[in-house]
Structures are given as C-alpha cells and as structure tokens.
Amino acid sequence: MKIIVGITGGIAAYKSPELVRLMKKAGHEVRCATTEHALQFVTRATLETVSGTQLYHNLFVDNSSATEHISLKDWGDLLVVAPATANIIGKVASGIADDPLSTLLLAFSGKPVLMAPAMNSLMWSHPAVQHNIKTLKSWGIHFVGPAEGELACGTSGPGRMVEPEEIVKYIATSLHSSAQQTLSGQRWLVTAGPTYERIDSVRFIGNYSSGKMGFALAQALADAGAEVELVTGPTALSISHPRIHRTDIESAREMYTAATATYPTCHGAILSAAVADYRPSECADHKLKKQGDEGMNLTLIQNPDILASLGKIKKTGQLLIGFALETDNELQNAQGKLQRKNLDYIVMNSLRDTGAGFGTDTNKVTILGADGSRHDVGLRSKQEVAFEIVSTITS
Questions:
Q1: pLDDT in tens, 61-73
Q2: Per the confidence metrics, is the pTM higher than 0.85?
Q3: What is the extent of the structural domain holding 246?
Q4: How many domains does the chain contain in total?
Q5: What is the CATH number for 19?
Q6: Residues 314-336: pLDDT tens digits?
Q7: Closest Cα to residue 274, out of 256, 252, 254, 258?
Q8: Which of 35, 152, 184, 370 is most enclosed, with most CB atoms within 10 A?
Q9: What DSSP character marks residue 108?
C-alpha cells in the first residue's frame, strides 16, 4: 500500500519517524508531508531518511511541482495524520487549506484518511474540537485514539497519540481492504435510518434510529471502491463521497420503491434501515384535534417487507444482508429471519448490550452467515464495525 504520513506541530511528532519505519517494515511505500510547525519537533533530514523519499513541506519552495498536493493524492492509497492536532482537525472541518498538509487533506477526496489525535485533555474535550471531529467522522474520516495517560504538560488524561504499533495494526485490520479498492467496479445498495409513517400533517409513527450504522456501511463500501446507492430515511447526518449517491425518503413505501428499483442492478445490498412494520390506515391532511378526554384510536396496516421482497428477486451471484435488532431470544430470532427472507448474512445486535443500538457511536454485533458461519464483533466504533461487516460479507 502507498501511504502518506502527515505530521503536524505537536510534541507527539517525535513518534512519527518510528511510525514511518514500522509502515515500511510492514511492506508499505511511504511518503511524508508536514506543516511548517511540525519541523520544530522533527527534522526534514530524519523524515527523508526513514521514508527514503523527499519531504513535502512547502507549497512553493524545494518542490518540483506547485501542484504536488494533487500528484501526491494521485499517488497515495491512504493518508495518515499522526499526530493530528486540534489545529489541523479544525482546518479540515472548516475547509481551510493554507499549508501543504491541509491542502493535501482537502485534495484527498474519495480516498481513506486516518487521524491519530494528540492534544491536551482540555483541548480534546472542548466543544469546538468535538464538533469538528463529529463533522469529520460524518464525512468518513477515520480516527484512532487518543489514548489516556501522562501528557507533555505534566497532567494526565485523554489526549495522548496512540503508539505507532497500534496505528499500523489499525491500518492492517480496519483499513487495508478499503485502501486497496477491493470492490472497484461493483454497485451496492444500502438503506439507513428510520422511516416516518404519517398520522396527520404534523404527527408520525417512527423510531429512534439515527442512521449512523447505515452511513458507516455506505462509507466503508465506497472506501473499498464500490459505487453506493444510499437510500436513507429522515436523519440529520451528512455524508460526502464521490461514489455515494444519496436518496432521501420518508416512509417505508418510499424506501420499498427505491430499494426494489435499485437492487436488480446491484452486486449486493445491506439493509440496515429501521423500517416501520406498520403504518396508519388513514393519514389526515390536517392536524387532528383533541376531542375532550377521549383517546385516539389508530388502525394500523402492514407495510411492505423490503428485505423479504428483495430476497424473492435475488439473482444468482447477488448478495443480500439484513439486520436484526433484538431484545430477547436474539440468536434464534436472527437465524429465523436469515432463513425466512433468503439472506446471505444477517447482522444481529441487541438493545440489551450497553453501547449498542440506536443513536450511539458504537456497536456490538454478530454476523451470521447462511452457510452456518458466525463472526462476533466486540464493542467498537460504528466505522470499525462497518469495516468488519464489509470485510466479512465480501471475503
């Protein structure tokens, strides 16, 4: 793999030469790019020696091309920023490109980026930094760390850059196939988020799904080279990737129409949306008024089963993956759904698991295959879980 290591002006930059050395030892080609302040902590000669290539550290001086950020983008499979300071995180989140590294980061669209944050604990916990990180994650940028421990300022807490060995391990286990574009030329369908079933002009039946798992899956597929058709219910999430094509819907019937029209031309589909099983039999075109102390009776009718419908039209060679969010008899219910709906895999998770389920940034799942296989994924970020799911179903 061709990896670009981006280095910023933080004390943790002293770890960067070792990171480059370990990457080369693992068989990767490595080039380095720095900010001006990074060279206050680690020298140009050191980085050029360990990488064996010329350092990209100035937009206009000592470089063969004024557009080296574009040629580097074309060369690299993966960009790793280590350390990633609050400054570089804020620049990318705001679209600022005023030095070699920030310019390269903005040009690196459509390829995977990994950041290893390093900063004081107070800076790490600041709302602005957390907001910027949330923004970058919504764009598909990966994060590893920070770790907790003793900091350069003498205090202790979250903010230490993870060790170079951990970054190399993360690349090998969570980013390698995406950087290698293993799904290039394939088209995939992903459904995400909730559906809203209207009662009247202002009320609806819905659920707590945020769409985070589905968006992470779309990103993982796109990072691996696939063209992704993302059909999503109402969500506040945003996503930016040249290979992700987003369709926003509201109701289960709208999602059914979009999914059944798209799936026949896809290599596979991952249906992670939390689709409402039922909808009101009637929807008022005005706000229903309260009538005294009487309650409101709603008659519910069944929505189309999107997963089962795709299972019926699935062709030889196509893959179909569903999700099963359970609260009891998890394994039995998930296996029954896997067989009943003609799925290749089903991803099971339980609301009883802390840190898993709706609205969280983490998940814990079990991937069950129609061939009897089982792959347990412990509590991790939804980005990491998405990678594990994509790796398992496409291996």
A1: 554 555 555 778 8
A2: no
A3: 187-394
A4: 2
A5: 3.40.50.1950
A6: 999 999 999 998 777 888 899 99
A7: 252
A8: 35
A9: -
